[in-house]
Write a structure and sequence with these properties.
Number of helices: 2
Helix content: under 10%
Order of helices and strands: EHEEEEEH
Strand order of the largest sheet: 1-5-2-4-3-6
Number of strands: 6
Radius of gyration: 16 Å
Mean pLDDT: 84
Oligomer: single chain
Shape: globular
Structural class: mainly beta
Largest sheet: 6 strands, mixed, barrel
């Protein structure tokens, strides 16, 4: 289970650590940068995708909420990055309350802007040259902005304890006015909390095979 945290807080295995500076300025409530307006975070189509999320990074875990998978072994030697998606993106829990084996539901989709990315679903996208706060240089020539990034949801970022980043229900926004959030395990080089534009996509056959072996979701 992912736990997004403020900077300089060292976390145990499976806990998240965002890389915010000590002082940050939020975006305007309309989702645009309040100084230059270069990124509109709720206009995913302008970036060639269906959804946009804020991002953080966490250490990963050997026992995720998506059926007890190991985040490292799941994507080892593939071109996928394991992520934890916000609770709002996988708010259906057949075993009861949050957070075991979350699935997306009918409230996710373009109407709410919340992406349907429950456990063991995949997407592809790219990082945008903008963070949800001001301060610090954006390396606009970084190779991270040229990558097509494949992700697989291996874990959850629950709202409880992660109120700043991870919305609870579809349509809810985080503290940076985004309805989606993804917590990356071992993200690409030069990652720095950049917005991520993405579209749900089928997982590869290899990854589907690994999920079937590793996840206990639906097995008990």
């Amino acid at each position: 289970m992912s736990l997004a945290r403020l900077p300089l807080v060292m976390t145990a295995l499976g806990a998240a650590m965002s890389r915010l500076p000590c002082a940050v300025a939020r975006l305007g409530s309309n989702g645009t940068s309040s100084d230059d307006g270069t990124v509109v975070i709720d206009d995913a189509a302008a970036h060639g995708h269906e959804y946009i999320s804020t991002t953080t990074v966490y250490a990963g875990t050997q026992h995720t909420a998506c059926g007890g998978m190991d985040t490292t072994e799941l994507v080892k030697d593939t071109d996928y990055y394991a992520v934890a998606s916000a609770q709002s993106m996988q708010y259906v829990f057949k075993k009861g309350d949050c957070c075991w084996c979350g699935e997306s539901g009918p409230k996710c989709g373009t109407e709410t802007g919340t992406a349907p990315l429950g456990c063991m679903t995949c997407a592809k996208g790219r990082f945008l040259k903008k963070r949800p706060y001001h301060g610090g240089e954006v390396k606009s020539d970084s190779k991270i902005f040229d990558l097509e990034v494949n992700i697989v949801v291996a874990d959850i970022c629950p709202h409880g304890g992660n109120e700043v980043w991870c919305p609870k229900s579809p349509g809810d926004k985080n503290e940076y006015d985004a309805v989606n959030h993804l917590d990356f395990v071992s993200p690409p080089e030069d990652f720095d909390n950049y917005y991520f534009a993405f579209t749900p996509a089928p997982c590869s056959e290899e990854l589907q095979g690994r999920i079937a072996k590793m996840s206990m979701c639906g097995k008990w």
